[in-house]
Amino acid sequence: MDMMGVILLIGFAGLGLLLGSFLGVVIHRGPQIWGLVESEGEDQTLSLAWPPSHCPSCKTRLRPVELIPILGYLFARGRCRHCETPIPRFYPIVESLGLFAGVISALLFASPLMAGASLAFFLLLIAMAAIDARTGYLPDALTLPLLTLGLGAGAFGIFVTAQDAILGWVIGWGCLAALAALYRLLRGREGLGGGDAKLLGAGAAFTGPYVLPIMLALAASSALIGALLMGKGRLDGATEIRFGPWLAGAIAAVFILQRIWPALPL
């Protein structure tokens, strides 16, 4: 790796870490702001910027040192300095995922433009996976920006051609939407949420349509194994499986595989 590559790697690692910290705020507050879940007692001015970061238990405002991604959690020993309430571990986990996304993007792409688009792609997937795991919703406030980014990148041929970006979107959304409609018709209840179809369509705008079978097989098998492990080997028709996290993971995995395994269809 040359000097420019090292600079890009360090820069995107730091950027991913900082944006990962902000992502924790999006994951925590976003569902409340968008009306997907009930407010947790925050005031009516709740936004991604206000009120400033604070302990959710005693409302003590965090000091600058406590806002340093990952290190702030370690300095505080995982607890609020005022009331000793444990700080949720998902914050340093999301920050670490942001760091990883920045590193992977810089390793996959030598172009800052492509690496930046890749980082935004990964961060949106992380946010949607976490929100769906926590609330059961995949918000349009995130799936639509992901789709816009994918189609925009396709228009300039950044990851796939414009035609493949559009085909990936249409076919990806259409196959899950049709499957959801069929399940609803046969079983008389919802099996797949509309957000899953939107997520697959938006993700396929980055990968093109030809890898959709691989993507769906990976997501479905991972979700099934995860459900069996969490259900201690038992699974029935009433078991709820939140598909979004597994689907987001499969989209990210296929996107990476396309870069490191040239034989995989683009």
Which overall shape is indicated by the principal axes computed on the Cα atoms? Answer: globular
Q: How many domain units?
A: 2
Describe the sheet with the most strands: none
Number of strands: 0
β-sheet strand percentage? under 5%
Radius of gyration, taken over Cα atoms and rounded to an integer in Å = 20 Å
Give the uncertain stretches in residue-range form: none
Continuous helix count: 9
Average the pLDDT over all residues and give the rounded result: 87
Separation, N- and C-terminal Cα atoms: 25 Å
One letter per element, helices H and strands E, the order comes to HHHHHHHHH
Structural class category:
mainly alpha
| Helix residue percentage | 55-70%
Protein name: Prepilin leader peptidase/N-methyltransferase
Domain Prepilin type IV endopeptidase peptidase: 120-225
GO molecular function: aspartic-type endopeptidase activity; methyltransferase activity
Subcellular location: Cell inner membrane; Cell membrane
Written account of the structure:
The model has no long low-confidence stretch (mean pLDDT 87). Helix 1 (3-33) packs across helix 3, helix 6 (162-187) runs antiparallel to helix 7 and helix 8 packs across helix 9. The longest helix is centred in the N-terminal third of the chain and has 31 residues, at 3-33. By secondary structure, this protein is an all-alpha fold. The chain is globular, with a radius of gyration of 20 Å. It has 9 helices and no strands. It has 2 domains: 1-137, no CATH class; 157-266, no CATH class. The protein starts with a helix and ends in a 6-residue tail after the last helix. Residues 120-225 form the Prepilin type IV endopeptidase peptidase domain. Its EC number is 2.1.1.-, 3.4.23.43. It comes from Parvularcula marina. One of its GO terms (molecular function) is methyltransferase activity.
